[in-house]
Amino acid sequence: MDVSAKVSSKGQVTIPHAVRKALALEEGDEVVFRVEGDRAVIARSADLLALAGSVSVPTAKRGTPWAEVLRQTRRARAAGRR
Asked: Helix/strand/coil (H, E, C) string of the chain?
């Protein structure tokens, strides 16, 4: 689908209805712009909260502070590089 829109004097663009509909965009949704050469691609921003619970965490590791998770991960990666 090719749809055009004009850039305003403030550098703003209204996302055309057909594009909003195709991406299921609603008011308040965030989008990501990715520049690929002389093109820009627009996509829905990932809803990270929707991913909650999609990865199982071993019982022994539940409740581990994030700083400890990072420390263990860095140590494991460093050991694997030797």
From this structure: CCCCCCCCCCCCCCCCHHHHHHCCCCCCCCEEEEEECCEEEEEECCCHHHHCCCCCCCHHHCCCCHHHHHHHHHHHHHHHCC
Amino acid symbol at 60: A
* Phi, psi of 51, rounded to the nearest 5 degrees: -85, -10
pTM score above 0.85:
no
Which residues are within 8 A (CB) of 6 and not within 5 positions of it... i.e. 6 or more apart? Answer: 13
Taking CA atoms, 22 is separated from 3, 10, 15, 16, 60, in Å, by: 12, 26, 11, 10, 43
Q: What pLDDT, in 10s, does the model give residues 52-77? A: 778 888 887 888 998 998 998 899 99
